């Protein structure tokens, strides 16, 4: 296609009414109708699985005319539109995607019936999207969601548990409500500590919530509700390339098994 032909089509290609009042407050308004259609098709084509993976993804774009452009240093493409994606943890099928339009816009769109226990954009996005994906709550039917450290919080875990959703994920040690007794001051593993030791802490008010710190090269903080706390072993690679077998909690294996559901879309 010729460049001028492409520019002519793009100039007249519109999906929504630019004069609508929401066009001034919704950064993704120009493609909002397309996103809504995709959400319906995604939901209609797949049954909600028992284990979900929630994480962020990015649509590459360096255009300064993109109102949703973000910089994510840990992604293969640093610049682009940030998405919150809810996927099947086993097949990586995308059940729902949400364009991140800024924390304030999402707060303004939340009604009285959609309150969240955590007002941070990450944990709030987990509760919001899981609620949109799951069917009405039924007795004896439970789900699980796996998140990384930016989307895990104690308040969010309690809220999900009340909805019949177990959660598992790494967590930042400075999160509100996290157990201070197992926080590690050392940012890297001392020579006196081998790989594999684990310490657990159980919430007295909500015994289903357990925190754990596992020593790898660095201390790894975990938070889970209803997850297994038994110990098993896993293989870790040394600097020289050799592999070594170290003890690890059951939740470590579950996390690495289910967390890649979103990363494959990068």
From TrEMBL:
Domain PiggyBac transposable element-derived protein positions: 1-266
Domain of life: Eukaryota
PANTHER family: PIGGYBAC TRANSPOSABLE ELEMENT-DERIVED PROTEIN 4
Protein name: PiggyBac transposable element-derived protein domain-containing protein
Organism ancestry: Eukaryota, Sar, Stramenopiles, Oomycota, Peronosporomycetes
């Amino acid at each position: 296609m010729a460049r001028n032909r492409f520019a002519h089509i793009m100039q007249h290609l519109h999906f929504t009414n630019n004069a609508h009042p929401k066009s001034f407050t919704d950064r993704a308004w120009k493609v909002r109708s397309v996103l809504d259609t995709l959400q319906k098709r995604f939901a209609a084509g797949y049954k909600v699985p028992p284990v979900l993976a929630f994480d962020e993804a990015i649509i590459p774009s360096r255009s300064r005319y993109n109102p949703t452009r973000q910089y994510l240093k840990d992604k293969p493409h640093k610049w682009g539109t940030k998405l919150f994606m809810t996927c099947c943890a086993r097949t990586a099928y995308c059940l729902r995607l949400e364009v991140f339009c800024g924390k304030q816009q999402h707060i303004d769109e939340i009604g009285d019936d959609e309150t969240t226990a955590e007002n941070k954009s990450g944990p709030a996005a987990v509760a919001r999207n899981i609620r949109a994906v799951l069917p009405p709550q039924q007795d004896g039917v439970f789900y699980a969601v796996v998140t990384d450290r930016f989307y895990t919080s104690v308040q969010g875990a309690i809220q999900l548990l009340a909805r019949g959703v177990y959660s598992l994920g790494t967590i930042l040690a400075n999160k509100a409500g996290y157990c201070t007794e197992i926080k590690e001051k050392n940012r890297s593993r001392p020579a006196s500590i081998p790989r594999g030791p684990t310490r657990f802490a159980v919430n007295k008010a909500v015994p289903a919530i357990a925190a754990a710190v596992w020593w790898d090269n660095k201390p790894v903080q975990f938070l889970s509700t209803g997850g297994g706390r038994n110990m098993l072993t896993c293989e870790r690679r040394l600097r020289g390339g050799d592999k070594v077998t170290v003890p690890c909690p059951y939740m470590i294996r579950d996390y690495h098994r289910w967390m890649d559901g979103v990363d494959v879309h990068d």
